[in-house]
Specification:
CATH class: Alpha Beta
Number of helices: 6
Structural class: alpha/beta
CATH architecture: 3-Layer(aba) Sandwich
Length: 206
């Protein structure tokens, strides 16, 4: 007489197993999409107080550029500047503040490019998003920057540039063409050679 051993039947997955399986599948699917690095940093809660872009560069062909930037701001010395004054010149705008580590690193390169291109009529302006006049002045003394900066602690300039500068993405550098339109943007640390090439390209345009 042959003994028939019962064939073991695997238990049905419990609720916990089903949930874990679903979570794993969701993670696999999420891994197929490239993360939004700015969004990730914004949600990180690491208290560094700035969102560092990845240094990505966006260039815009002349025929694809949006309308000229329209903004008015007050420099730390009290001078009011309107972007309409920049027509005919290439203009570089750099969003910064003193405690931002990438801002400190790129400051000497920005100043060097300011000196290199000032005889070509290229204008450089900083847009400081949080510092007092004393703090901004101390930064300028430390890093030797001589181009002026706007006091944008109220966020008015960034609001005017909202289509070009992501919220809290510091530093960000914009190169405006001779018509005041954004020709290029760097999110994060501006590499000197890259920014120089972008400025040179804008200068070469009619």
């Amino acid at each position: 007489m042959t003994n028939h051993q019962p064939v073991p039947v695997p238990p049905l997955p419990g609720r916990r197993s089903l949930l874990l399986g679903a979570a794993s599948a969701a993670l696999l699917l999420a891994g197929c999409a490239a993360p939004d690095t700015l969004a990730v940093q914004a949600k990180a809660g690491d208290n560094k107080n700035y969102i560092a872009g990845d240094g990505s560069v966006s260039e815009y062909a002349p025929g694809t550029r949006t309308a000229a930037v329209g903004m008015t701001g007050v420099l730390y010395d009290g001078t009011t500047v309107d972007s309409a004054q920049w027509q005919g010149n290439v203009t570089v705008l750099n969003v910064w503040y003193a405690a931002c580590a990438p801002c400190r690193k790129e400051a000497p390169d920005l100043e060097a490019l300011h000196q290199e291109f000032k005889n070509d009529g290229v204008r450089f302006y900083g847009i400081n998003v949080r510092d007092t006049a004393a703090t901004a002045a101390a930064f300028e003394r430390t890093f030797g920057t001589t181009y002026p900066s706007f006091n944008d602690s109220d966020g008015g300039i960034l609001l005017a540039l909202a289509n070009h500068v992501p919220p809290r993405a510091v530093p960000t550098t914009l190169v405006l063409d001779k018509h005041g339109k954004v020709a290029a943007r760097i999110l994060g640390l501006a590499e000197k050679s890259t920014l120089k090439a972008l400025i040179s390209t804008a200068l070469s345009e009619p």
